[in-house]
Design a protein that fits this description.
The protein is mainly beta. The chain contains two helices and 30 strands. The strands form four sheets. It has a 20-stranded antiparallel β-sheet. The two termini are about 25 Å apart.
Length: about 375
């Protein structure tokens, strides 16, 4: 399924970066939808082994690693490295090569904060989490219902005007957009009126309910802001170092993680314990073909292109760990007894076959994906 509004959103976001940074970012040709949505989702099932997650609905692949974690008083500093076989909006051309990314939260879409009022300049507004998943910021229907009926029942009631499906709230504090999660931790974006206007697209501060915080510094490069330093209120800090266009290390001053590239692709991640991850790719694309884990396990992956509704989807068809292999096949829009469904069949190395049936997005009014049976 193609979502026309995302085309406009991508164009507007890229236009924003080109106008305000003075540079033209690369064109992003892929358009995320239900079958090519990056990041983890609570509504999806994943077949997981050796930190590689196959989305059993869409056939996509992802991997997430916390390369460096510093705990202390206040929010943890977490440097999360994520791989998605499909690109997150505006993350396709990252400073880690195709497929990989490290960031602390972004906004995609245009908006303005002024006098505590949030206004959208694009039809949709998304928060991109560090794992690449996209969370849409939506008007709060309860807020609108109360306003339409003459206001709140009690003057002291608080109800956010904008929320997410995960019950985060979004609001403007002056000219600054703030997202607040369910633990009452605030994520501050750059002020709408700042000199570096593209800072309002990235998280610049994280503060918990006790006033402990992280400050995140950025550097403009290749039309995108990339994080360079994270400073905690209790003294913890992490430095992100770049060589040319690529992130080459993260360090807390004592221990660090090093990133090695072959051409434009991330090929190795070295940890201070002397262990590493190694990566190879299919035909110089973003698709992983071989992963060697720190314990020496070798995972081989095979892909195929699934043409569906005039869009070409890369899907995992085989995953082998040594001689143990899993095979995946996909059937879209099967007209079954439960309506229009999608079927994924997994042949396991144990001589069994799993058949997963999901509601097709055409069958649900709110666009949710739900597994019906196994």
């Amino acid at each position: 399924m193609r979502h026309g509004y995302l085309i406009g959103l991508l164009a507007a976001a890229l236009l924003f970066f080109s106008l305000e940074s003075g540079a033209q970012p690369p064109e992003i040709s892929e358009e995320p939808d239900f079958y090519s949505s990056p990041g983890q989702s609570a509504t999806r099932d994943y077949e997981v082994s050796d930190n590689l997650q196959v989305d059993t609905f869409a056939g996509t692949l992802q991997s997430h690693s916390n390369d460096l974690v510093l705990s202390g008083t206040g929010p943890d500093i977490v440097v999360q490295r994520s791989y998605n076989s499909v690109p997150s909006v505006i993350s396709e051309y990252s400073y880690m090569g195709p497929g990989w990314d490290i960031h602390f939260g972004r906004i995609v879409g245009l908006y303005t904060c002024s006098n505590n009022a949030l206004s959208f300049q694009t039809v949709k507004l998304f928060f991109i989490k560090p794992d690449g998943s996209q969370v849409q910021i939506l008007p709060n229907e309860l807020y609108l219902d109360n306003n339409n009926s003459g206001g709140f029942e009690e003057a002291y009631d608080y109800m956010p005007e904008y929320v997410t499906a995960e019950f985060w709230r979004a609001e403007c504090r002056g000219d600054t957009l703030v997202l607040t999660d369910k633990t009452d931790t605030d994520y501050f974006f750059g002020a709408s009126g700042s000199v570096e206007l593209d800072r309002k697209q990235v998280v610049v501060k994280v503060e918990d309910s006790h006033g402990n915080y992280l400050d995140i510094d950025y550097q403009l490069a290749n039309a995108f802001l990339r994080p360079t330093h994270v400073q905690a209120s209790d003294g913890r800090s992490v430095e992100l170092t770049y060589t040319g266009n690529y992130l080459t290390s993260v360090s807390d001053g004592t221990v660090g993680v090093t990133y090695i590239y072959t051409g434009q692709h991330l090929s190795q991640v070295d940890f201070p314990e002397g262990i590493n991850w190694k990566y190879e790719y299919k035909d110089s694309t973003r698709l992983l073909s071989k992963v060697t884990t720190p314990l020496g396990a070798v995972v081989d992956l095979e892909w195929d292109n699934y043409l569906f509704r005039n869009k070409d989807y890369p899907v995992v068809t085989s995953k082998c760990i040594g001689e143990d292999c899993w095979g995946y096949t996909y059937e879209r829009e099967y007209n079954g007894s439960n309506g229009i469904v999608d079927i994924t069949r997994i042949n396991t190395p144990f001589g069994t076959r799993e058949e997963l049936t999901h509601l097709n997005p055409l069958s649900v009014s709110n666009g949710g994906i739900r597994r019906l049976s196994t």
